[in-house]
Amino acid sequence: MKKLIFSLMLMFTTLQIFAQDNGVEMADQMRSNGKIYVVVGCIVVILVGLLVYLFSLDKRLKKLEKDN
Fold it and tell me: Helix 36-67 crosses helix 25-33 at what angle (to 10 degrees)?
């Protein structure tokens, strides 16, 4: 019984996914204006900043563990 209910729930969630509209007007408009590259650039800068911060934090933690 649990398997039947679970499979029905999965079926209904996939039906909702297929019922959605795939056209994203905002992304198409930003791509045509060239602003999408600004958005992608900002995301890349933020991710690179987070990675640099995490690596520097990891380096400091290794140094503290080595000293102890």
Answer: 100
Query: CA 58 to CA 50: how far, in whole Å?
Result: 12
CA 46 to chain centre: 13
Instruction: Give the pTM.
Output: 0.56
Which residues, given as ranges, of the chain have pLDDT below 50?
none
Q: Can you give the length of the chain in residues?
A: 68
d(CA 51, CA 41): 15
The DSSP 8-state label assigned to residue 20 in this structure reads S
**3-class DSSP state of 34:** coil
Terminal CA-to-CA distance of the chain, rounded, Å?
A: 57
> Cα–Cα–Cα angle for 37, 51, 41, nearest 5°?
5
Q: How far apart are CA 23 and CA 19, in angstroms?
A: 12
